[in-house]
Structures are given as C-alpha cells and as structure tokens.
C-alpha cells in the first residue's frame, strides 16, 4: 500500500492516479484506455472509483492518518476553495467527478461529473469505513477510522420509524471500544436495532487512538 501511495498520489494537484506511467509509447496494447491522452481518465489520470478503493484499503489497515489525508485530497469541495483552484478544477466542486486529469497543462482539471458511480462509493467510504457505521440485518457495529485530532462526532441514524442518536468520543487511554445504548453497555459492541418508534441514545467511547492497529 505504501508503494501505491508513493507512486500514485500526486500531491501538487491533489489527485490519486489510477496507474503510472500512462500507456503512451508502450508496444503492448492495454485496450481502449490507450486511446486517451496520457494522464487522462483511465490512462494515468485519477479514476475516482480506484482512488476511493485505495482509501478503503488504508481504512482496512486502520491507517487513520492516510485515510484522513487522502479523503481530504479527493473531496471535490477542496478543489474549489479559492479562485485559483476553481480556475484549475473547472467543474462543480459540490459533486464528485468521475475523473481528474493528471497531465500538463490540464493537471487537476475535473472530468465527467454527476454521472458517476464513484459518488456512491464515496458515500460508503465516509459512512462505513471512515465514520465506521456498519449495518448487517438489524445489527449496527462500529469500526471508526477517524484521525486522532477528532475528539468526537455525532450521527443521527433512522431505522424505519425509530431514531438513534449516536455520539462517538475518542480518548487517548485504554484499549476498549465501549458501546452504551440508553445507558446500558452492549457487551459485544453490537447494537440490536428495534423499530419501537422511540428515540434511543448510543454512546461510543474509543479509549485508545491506535486500537485499530493493535
């Protein structure tokens, strides 16, 4: 993973390339992608599906710093914070682009927006892998991969006609993930969802900043 990070992350333009170097002068024909200009779309640009999958892999490894760094990097809003960045990106900063160019003179320019399945993958990355909220059947489990500077966050989760207010607090001691539902500890850390049309409070305490790596 660190090799992929070293070779594919292009920090100056804030993108994660699909591959490097692009297919340009190779005698081997990889297929249709060679028809793109080197550094565009699948031919060495950021193909956002794959960029997200790299971050998902770092989340699986529990590498909080890499996840936070790369998530910020491909977040489209961070490509449109200044007039200069907007002039480079040239597409809407409030939707995810399917691709971002890596080649001069258009490095950092967004490609196909709106119509991309990578938006749903980005949603899964943020909810399931970054914030750590995972649902299987009527059970909720929690495996956050948030940076150490995040001391807390909240999620308001609706299950059918029932609202669950989830408060996550990150501390720097101990080695446990403590889960309380309406003040009662869940021994296995899993919340069993019920549709009783009431409001429930879930309190989660992360007692060790590195517990995912242990």
Task: Describe this structure as you would to a colleague.
This protein has two domains: 2-122, no CATH class; 132-213, Maltose phosphorylase, domain 3 (Sandwich). 24% of the residues lie in helices and 23% in strands. The chain contains five helices and twelve strands. The strands form four sheets. Strands 7-8-12-9-10 form a five-stranded mixed sheet, with no helix packed on it. A hairpin with a 2-residue loop joins strand 7 and strand 8. Helix 2 (48-60) packs antiparallel against helix 3 (64-74) and helix 2 (48-60) packs parallel to helix 5 (118-130). The longest helix is centred in the first third of the chain and has 13 residues, at 48-60. It is elongated. The mean pLDDT is 91.
Element pattern in H and E: HEEEHHHEHEEEEEEEE
Strand order of the biggest β-sheet: 7-8-12-9-10
Total discrete domains:
2
Based on secondary structure, the structural category is alpha+beta
Number of separate helices: 5
- In round numbers, the mean pLDDT is 91
Unreliable segments of 5+ consecutive residues: none
| Number of β-strand runs | 12
Largest sheet report = 5 strands, mixed
Gap between N and C termini: 18 Å
Radius of gyration: 20 Å
């Amino acid at each position: 993973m660190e090799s992929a990070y070293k070779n594919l992350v292009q920090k100056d333009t804030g993108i994660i390339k699909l591959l490097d170097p692009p297919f340009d002068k190779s005698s081997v024909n990889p297929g249709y992608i060679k028809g793109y200009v080197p550094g565009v779309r699948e031919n060495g640009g950021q193909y956002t599906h794959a960029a997200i999958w790299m971050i998902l892999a770092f989340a699986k490894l529990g590498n909080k710093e890499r996840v936070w760094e790369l998530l910020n990097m491909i977040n489209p809003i961070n490509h449109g914070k200044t007039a200069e960045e907007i002039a480079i990106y040239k597409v809407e900063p409030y939707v995810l682009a399917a691709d971002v160019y890596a080649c001069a003179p258009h490095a950092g320019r967004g490609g196909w927006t709106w119509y991309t399945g990578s938006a749903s993958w980005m949603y899964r990355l943020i909810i399931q892998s970054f914030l750590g909220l995972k649902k299987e059947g009527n059970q909720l489990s929690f495996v956050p991969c948030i940076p150490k500077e995040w001391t807390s966050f909240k999620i308001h989760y609706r299950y059918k006609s029932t609202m669950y207010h989830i408060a996550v607090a990150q501390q720097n001691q101990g080695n446990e993930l403590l889960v309380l539902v309406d003040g009662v500890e869940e021994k296995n850390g899993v919340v069993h969802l019920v549709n009783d049309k009431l409001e429930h409070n879930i309190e989660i305490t992360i007692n060790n900043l590195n517990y995912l790596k242990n």
